[in-house]
Design a protein that fits this description.
Number of domains: 2
CATH class of the largest domain: Alpha Beta
Number of helices: 13
Strand content: 5-15%
Oligomer: single chain
Order of helices and strands: HHEHEHEEHHEHHHHHHH
Shape: globular
Distance between the termini: 30 Å
């Protein structure tokens, strides 16, 4: 698949400054439906973690990353988000579901990994903690609300709105809801974040409207309850060690600049 060359040329954050470039979303979950399926509403999603030049940290040049350290790129079917490394690591420490998954992908889902990017992947255990319950389950509750209340929201294109009218709920949000809760349950129970889904068939069935709203809500209720119980019994630490993560961030940036000197 690969990110198109014109996007790479136009965005130096991806082409030159990336320490990790990877796919995300339905591609990494195994639920990407292409463009021909009548139920397909997926973009081609990618995520980049980058280290900009030193003047980003010591001067005033934001290098297109803005004050928040994030750049979003929308072109054709592509939806790409680029995080400056400190921003990325701060979100990882908080257990943000969308970015935490970049540490747990299958090998073929990584487009680029530099030596400093590998440092981050090698230390993914630094970000373990029960605190992810709040971020995953909270995000799932948001998906559950949007599942039945999002028909007139700007994020929904014409095709997705038509599917909402046909089935009476947002089937894409419903699939996200079930996936997030199952991932949270697995992580709290085993300490493993299973980004690629073995339940792909069920998740795609939900996206195709083969589950009724009642069936989705019943499964979500069951999973919310199991996540609550798993939080109590989980062997994960309460939260990450902030000092360890801070030291890792410094090491990653230093390693990146050393690489660029060679």
């Amino acid at each position: 698949m690969g990110i198109p060359k014109d996007i790479l040329r136009e965005n130096i954050q991806i082409s030159d400054w990336s320490i990790i470039t990877a796919y995300r979303g339905s591609i990494v979950h195994g639920t990407y439906m292409g463009t021909k399926d009548i139920h397909a509403t997926d973009d081609k999603d990618a995520m980049i973690i980058c280290v900009p030049p030193i003047d980003y940290y010591l001067g005033f040049n934001t290098h297109g990353l803005g004050k928040k350290g994030v750049k979003e790129i929308f072109k054709g079917q592509w939806d790409i988000v680029c995080y400056e490394v400190r921003k990325a690591i701060s979100l990882l420490e908080k257990g943000n579901p969308n970015i935490l998954m970049i540490l747990w992908l299958k090998e073929e889902n990584y487009i680029k990994i530099s030596s400093s990017g590998q440092l981050l992947l090698d230390h993914r255990s630094y970000f373990d903690g029960k605190h992810v319950y709040k971020s995953f389950v909270g995000y799932a509750r948001g998906q559950m609300h949007r599942m039945t209340h999002g028909a007139h929201q700007g994020y929904m294109g014409t095709k997705r709105k038509e599917l909402f009218r046909r089935y009476g709920y947002d089937v894409k949000n419903a699939s996200h809801l079930v996936r997030l809760l199952r991932m949270a349950l697995e992580y709290l129970t085993t300490g493993e974040l299973n980004v690629f889904r073995e339940d792909t068939g069920e998740l795609i069935d939900i996206k195709r409207g083969k589950w009724s709203l009642t069936e989705v809500e019943k499964e979500a209720s069951r999973l919310f309850d199991l996540c609550d119980k798993a939080l109590i019994t989980s062997d994960l630490p309460p939260r990450p060690d902030h000092n360890l993560i801070s030291d890792l961030c410094v090491e990653i940036i230093r390693t990146t600049y050393k690489e660029r000197e060679n």
